[in-house]
Fold these 2 entries.
Entry 1:
Amino acid sequence: MSVVSGDVILQKLAWRYATKEFDSTRKISDENWKVLETAIISSPSSYGLQPWKFVVITNQTVKDQLPDAAWGQSQPKDCSHYVVIAARKTTDADYVQKLIDAMAAERSVPVESLSGYKQAVLSKTGGMSNGHQEWNSRQCYIALGFLLETAALLGIDACPMEGIVRDKMDLLLGLTDTGYTATVGCALGYRSSSDKYAEAKKVRYSAADLIKRI
C-alpha cells in the first residue's frame, strides 16, 4: 500500500480553508465522490456503533431550500454536494444487536461468541439515561473530520457548518420521524475565484501554546 508523504499532507492541510463561496458550475466527479463517501463510512465510532446517518444532497431544487435551514448561508445552495451528518437519537438494545449481528457475519464467528462484547456495550449505553443523542452527536464530528481531511487530500474544497437550524433541516430532509436528527453539515465542491478568504493567511496558535508534552 502506497503512503502519502508527510509533506503532501501538510501542504494539503495548509491549502484548505472553510470555503465561503463555491463555484456552482463545478461538480465533484463520481470517482472522487465515491472516495469521500467511503471515507465517511470508514470513520471510527465508539464501540463501532456508527450512530449516524449521512444525508447527501445534490438535487438543486432541494439545495435551493437549504439556506433557509442554514441561517441564510449560501454554501449549501452553491456547492456540489452538501452532506448533513445526523445523529441517532437513541442507542437501544435492538441497535446494539444490529452491530453484533453485523460483526458476527463479517468475521464469520458465532453470534454467541460476542456476548461479552454485547454486554459491555449495553452496560455503557444502558447507563446513559437520556444522554444517547449527545454522545452520538459527538461521534458525528469524528466522521466530519474524516470527510474534511479526505476532501483536502483530493483537492476538493469544503466548509463545515454548525450553523444549521436542526428542526428545519430535519423537516426538509425527512428526518423528523426517523430516529435521527441533523447535527452538522458540510458543503463540498470547488472555491469560487471571487472568494476573498481563499488567499487569507491562516491564524493558528503555535505548538508551544497548544501542545503539552509529558
Note: The chain has a mean pLDDT of 96.
Entry 2:
Amino acid sequence: MKIVSFESKAVRIAREPSPAVAGADTMDFVTLKLRTDEGVTGIGYAGFQSPVLTPALKAAVDGLCEVAIGSDPMDTEAIGEKLARLGGGSPAGLLTRAISAIDVALWDIKGKALGQPVHKLLGGYRDTVPTYQSGYLWRPATLAELDADARRIVADGFRSMKFRLGAEPTVAGEMARLETMRNAVGPDVDLMIDINQGWDVNRAIRIGREMAQFDIFWLEDPTTFDDFSGLARIADALDTPIAAGEYVYGIAPFRQLIEQRSIDIVMVDLLRVGGLTQWMKVAHMAEAHNLPVVTHLAPEVLVHALAAVPNGLTLEYMPWGFPLFKEVPQPVNGEVTLSSEPGLGLEFDDALLATSEIAV
C-alpha cells in the first residue's frame, strides 16, 4: 500500500462554544485527507494557531504531503523521521504541527486497513475514559457567570472541570473566584485550575498554598513553560499536583520535565508533540516514572491515545474542533466510550468544510 495523493483545505469555523476568550469567535484549521492506492483514506488536521499563520501552515502541510507520496502509510516512524529532517531535525512550530496532521491521518489509514480502531492498535488498554469539561469558565467571566456555568456543567453530568485564574491583580481576587467555583459545585467535583503561565514562581507558591483549602485536583502551567527549575520549586512547595507540558514541542523536553521532577501530571498536546506516534512515546516515558498522562485539546483524536495507556488519567473535553466532523464521541456522566469503528471513527463534515474554506 502506498500514499498516492492528498487533499488539504484551510477552513475557518465558529469557535464552539464561543466565549470571548481570545478576542475572536472563529478558529482556523487545515484539514487533510491522505489517499492510498488501495482506496483507503485517512484524515487529520492541524490548527490552534493564529489566523496570520494559516497560509504558512497549509503550505507546510502541502509540502510535507508531497514528500510523503509514495511511502507505505504503515511506516509511521520512517515517514515522521523523514519529514522532521526537512526542518533540520529539531521539532518546533509549524513543521511539527504539519507533521502531526499527517501522522494522525496515517494512523487512521492503519486502522481502516486493518479493520481496527486506533486505540486498539496503540495499546487497547480500555474502551472508556473519564473526561473533564474545559470549554467554559474563562477569565472574563464574572463571579455570577462562573457560578451559573459551573452548576450547568455539573447538571450536564461532568464530575470534573477546569477553570482559569491568573488575571486578577490581587490574591484576594483570585481566591474569590476559586471560592465561588467550589461553592457552586460542592465537595465531590474535581476542580482543575489553569494559569496559562500567568504567575511568577513566588506568586504561584503563595497562592498555591492558600488554594489548598479548596482541594484542587491540579494546578496547570503556573509559570513560564520552559522554566523547568521554577516549576520544580513550585511542585516541591505545594501538595497540589502540578500539570504542565502542553506548550513544549517534541518529546525531548518531557524527559527534562520528568527527570527534574518539574511536574506531577504530564500534559501532552497532539500537535506540538508531533502526532499520535510521539504522544505515545511521552505517555510511556511518564509511565516509566510512575506519572499519569493527560491530553490537551483535540479530544476526538486523543481519546484513542488516552485509552491505549494504563497511566492515562483524564481527557480534556475541549470542543473547538468538533464542527469539522459529522459526529464526535460524546460524554455520558463524565465518561467517553470509544467507537469500535476502524481507524479514528471520524468523518469530516465535507459540506461544512466546503462552505468554510478560505483562500490562503
Note: The radius of gyration is 20 Å.
